Amino acid sequence: MSQPGGGDGESSPPGSQTRSLTQESLLEELLKEQKTLGTPVALFSEEYDSKPVRDRFSHLIPLSKPTRGEQYAFEVHLDECTGCKACVAACHSLNGLDEGESWRDMGLLVGTRKQPYLQTVTTACHHCVEPACADGCPVLAYDKNPVTGIVRHLDDQCIGCSYCILKCPYDVPKFNFKRGIVRKCDMCQGRLAEGEAPACVQACPNEAIQIKIIRHDLVQESGSIIPGAFDSKYTRPTTTYISSKPVPVAAKAADSGRIELDHGHTPLSWMLVLTQMSAGTFIGCAIAMWLNALTLQQAAITSAVALLIGLVGIQLSVLHLGQPLKAWRAFMGWRKSWLSREILAFGALPGGGAAIAAAWWFDNMEWMRLAVTGTAVAALAAVFCSVMVYVDTRRPFWSLSMTSGKFFGTMLLLGGCVCAAVWIFFGVAAVYWAMGIKVVLRWILSLWEISRYRLALEDETTPWHKSALVIRKHLSHHIELRGLSLVMTGLVIPVAIAGGAPAHWMLIVSLLMTSASQLVERLYFFTAAAGSKMPGN
């Protein structure tokens, strides 16, 4: 039976067709409207492109160049920094950095239980008034622009020696293994020159990073620009950190307690041991000649051994460079770089060797004495430059007393070992003096190093306490190995020689073991250096 007013099927409710048509029309209208809408990125791009170049982020950068006594500098507003790392990503992307390379980092400051504090910190190159990286570079690969004050790294000049990394107390220059050179932030100077803000400034969503003009006479000259940073009097960094809430004095970097190994420089470890051995041998030979304890032939052979050892050490140092074919440039920074001075001083060894060879050829003992003495003085000066290369980095573990004690001690110790090992084959009477001096120096140097290490380990106020902790945690087996070597070379071998053991071979074994012990010390001389850095680097 059919329903009233309908057919055989169910009838549609009144107005349903009208509603259906209305919904379809609304959907079509919405779809049409959606096609005209832009994404947030598109809208930002349209607004960005519609403005003149100088209006883009113009409130975040100076609109005029610095005048005399001024320069550009980063200004970081800590209250606005959330640690999102947009600045890090933008710097990496817009500067075309390689994988794993970073010119801007993000760190974290924390307080104590009594003074709770938590603050993220963005950091990059501080474009210091007196940049240590530029002062230490042996090839003048750094340039501080006289107008903008920006410290720029000249990639084509760099030989990849990494000395600027050791010199910078903020861990700013980074070694690029792919290119074999060091690279760093240049404040996007090309963008600034065109009225554009640097990548990090543009990317920060909270505008926490700005570029300001700062006067040199107002740059902080003491204290730290932020807790955990190195003392500003060394390089006078220009970055300023601003916060409405005072940063607690006890605040420190969240990663300050990390005990980890620093980068090891194995070729440099070999170079230091061998060149100091060479210098000590020349000195021992010169002293013996002035005491008339050596003949012309014996002096020539001893000097030849010393020269060969020194040249091998110098050649091994080239393996440390990322760009070894450019090593010839290393003398260019001699006016201010101790590394250049060290290279020039060791460069005198071949000349000294030629003078010694000439004296031997003409069979002139007086010439030989003067040539050996002159070469010994040059080698001694080179070792002093080696000391200053590391002292000048201001790292506590490389203090003047520590480094000079280690380097000059190694020089005299290994020099005595080589002289004894060579002279024993010629029956030189002075060999017994060399043996005695070697044993005494071995004990004095070892006991001095052990006492300093234990003191630094127990006393938290000692400047290189952290280095001692690194040695205890990661390198304790090195200490044990050196202790075994001390017993063998300072006690067992001398007793064996006194008991009638063949002195010729015993002295050679002693030389090899002592050299190995000093090489082990040089390896942790680098890995336990515990250099300073900014929070988070």
Short description:
The protein has 537 residues and is mainly alpha-helical. It is built from 17 helices and ten strands.
Description:
The chain has 537 residues and is mainly α. It has 17 helices and 10 strands. The chain has helices spanning 16-36, 40-50, 86-94, 132-136, 163-167, 189-193, 199-203, 266-290, 296-317, 338-346, 348-361, 365-391, 400-423, 431-458, 465-474, 476-498, 503-527, and strands at residues 70-77, 105-110, 118-123, 142-144, 151-153, 174-176, 181-183, 209-215, 240-242, 252-253. The strands form 4 sheets. The chain has a 3-stranded mixed sheet with strand order 8-1-9, with no helix packed on it. Helix 8 (266-290) packs antiparallel against helix 12 and helix 8 (266-290) crosses helix 13 (400-423). It starts with 15 loop residues before the first helix and ends in a 10-residue tail after the last helix.
Q: In CATH's first tier, which class of the largest domain applies?
A: Mainly Alpha
Structural class: mainly alpha
Give the strand order, joined by hyphens, for the main sheet. Answer: 8-1-9
Considering the protein shown, what is the CATH homologous superfamily of the largest domain? Formate dehydrogenase/DMSO reductase domain
Number of strands: 10
User: Over all CA atoms, what is the radius of gyration?
Assistant: 33 Å
The CATH architecture name of the largest domain reads Up-down Bundle
Strand content: 5-15%
Mean model confidence by pLDDT: 90
Elements, N to C (H/E): HHEHEEHEEHEEHHEEEHHHHHHHHHH
Q: Residue ranges: pLDDT <50 for 5 or more in a row?
A: 1-9
What is the distance, rounded to the nearest whole angstrom, between the alpha carbons of the first and last residues?
87 Å
> What is the helix tally?
17
Q: What characteristic shape results from the CA principal axes?
A: elongated
Query: What's the story with the biggest beta sheet?
Result: 3 strands, mixed
* Count of folded domains: 2
Helix content: 40-55%
CATH topology of the largest domain: Formate dehydrogenase/DMSO reductase fold
Pfam family, one: DmsC
Subcellular location: Cell envelope
GO biological process, one term: anaerobic electron transport chain
Domain 4Fe-4S ferredoxin-type: 72-102, 149-178
